Amino acid sequence: MKLALIPAIFNCLFYFAAQTSAVTVESVPSASSDGYIHTELDKTVSLTCTHDAASEADDELVWLRNDALVSLKEENKKGQSRVCISPVILKDRETTFTCHLRSNATNRVSVVLNVTYPPSLTEPEGITVEEEASMFLRCAIEAYPPVTSVVWTLNGTEVDLKAAQMTLTNDGLFSTLSTVKVQRSLHQATYQCITDSPMYGARTQVFTVNVTDKTLKFPLYPMIAGIVVVCLTTILAVASRWKKIVKCCK
Ligand SMILES: *[C@@H]1O[C@H](CO)[C@@H](O)[C@H](O)[C@H]1NC(C)=O
Ligand SMILES: *[C@@H]1O[C@H](CO)[C@@H](O)[C@H](O)[C@H]1NC(C)=O
Ligand SMILES: *[C@@H]1O[C@H](CO)[C@@H](O)[C@H](O)[C@H]1NC(C)=O
Ligand SMILES: *[C@@H]1O[C@H](CO)[C@@H](O)[C@H](O)[C@H]1NC(C)=O
């Protein structure tokens, strides 16, 4: 929908420019002909809106971020107005910035941020899991442009899900390799989640899984009793204190 809107807005710009009442937007980095500004996370985008009709020199400029008014300092409104998006964050994806005169919203210019980012894979993870417990290895694969492939390896060769008794799921945000019952002979290994993206190439996250012997479950009842005692003591302490506080207030 936005794609269809942008050229229309630019046509307006040229139309109104001919009538010498132009609002123009310049950006760093510069926008493509269809109004998209390519940027990446943590970068800075600066937008400068200029109004150059002498007769309306006093007219204030207004910036909208996705239709919401951007609050501007007083000295950043007349004739020229500048906004900076710094640093660019995920929320800025596909955000539209529009500039127009406060007095006349018809004559407006919009640009859209096109934020690209690789999957946010993290440092190698060491995981210790008990025999017979369940295990989830989660790899963040969300990226723009989207990753073209996700491959999991176990000790260097692609995981054979059936042989390893594991399940692989992918919800677009995470690729998760899991098993409901860990066995040392099958699962103690080094895993790699390898993503490939047309823009950022191959990225890998490493998981080292150690399987420990099954232990007895932590005794819950004594712990609950302990917590109850602590809570009761606290309540009593506050209650007796409260009497004193109330007394001195009277
Ligand atoms: C807004 O400006 C355009 C030309 O720049 C003009 O045709 C139009 O009438 C103006 N609208 C208002 C409400 O002043
Ligand atoms: C955004 O940038 C990416 C990478 O350059 C490009 O593939 C994509 O077409 C751009 N999207 C739009 C809507 O311009
Ligand atoms: C796994 O076990 C090996 C050998 O016992 C040890 O060297 C390594 O540090 C352990 N890794 C983790 C993540 O606990
Ligand atoms: C993976 O390699 C480690 C170290 O060579 C080995 O101890 C482990 O058994 C292997 N895991 C599997 C499932 O083959």
From TrEMBL:
<keyword id="KW-1133">Transmembrane helix</keyword>
<dbReference type="InterPro" id="IPR051275">
    <property type="entry name" value="Cell_adhesion_signaling"/>
</dbReference>
<dbReference type="GO" id="GO:0005911">
    <property type="term" value="C:cell-cell junction"/>
</dbReference>
<dbReference type="GO" id="GO:0005886">
    <property type="term" value="C:plasma membrane"/>
</dbReference>
<protein>
    <recommendedName>
        <fullName>Ig-like domain-containing protein</fullName>
    </recommendedName>
</protein>
<keyword id="KW-0325">Glycoprotein</keyword>
<feature type="domain" description="Ig-like">
    <location>
        <begin position="29"/>
        <end position="110"/>
    </location>
</feature>
<dbReference type="Pfam" id="PF13927">
    <property type="entry name" value="Ig_3"/>
</dbReference>
<keyword id="KW-0393">Immunoglobulin domain</keyword>
<feature type="signal peptide">
    <location>
        <begin position="1"/>
        <end position="22"/>
    </location>
</feature>
<feature type="domain" description="Ig-like">
    <location>
        <begin position="118"/>
        <end position="212"/>
    </location>
</feature>
<dbReference type="GO" id="GO:0098609">
    <property type="term" value="P:cell-cell adhesion"/>
</dbReference>
<dbReference type="InterPro" id="IPR013783">
    <property type="entry name" value="Ig-like_fold"/>
</dbReference>
<keyword id="KW-0732">Signal</keyword>
<dbReference type="InterPro" id="IPR007110">
    <property type="entry name" value="Ig-like_dom"/>
</dbReference>
<keyword id="KW-1015">Disulfide bond</keyword>
<feature type="transmembrane region" description="Helical">
    <location>
        <begin position="220"/>
        <end position="240"/>
    </location>
</feature>
<keyword id="KW-0812">Transmembrane</keyword>
<dbReference type="InterPro" id="IPR036179">
    <property type="entry name" value="Ig-like_dom_sf"/>
</dbReference>
<dbReference type="GO" id="GO:0050839">
    <property type="term" value="F:cell adhesion molecule binding"/>
</dbReference>
<keyword id="KW-0472">Membrane</keyword>
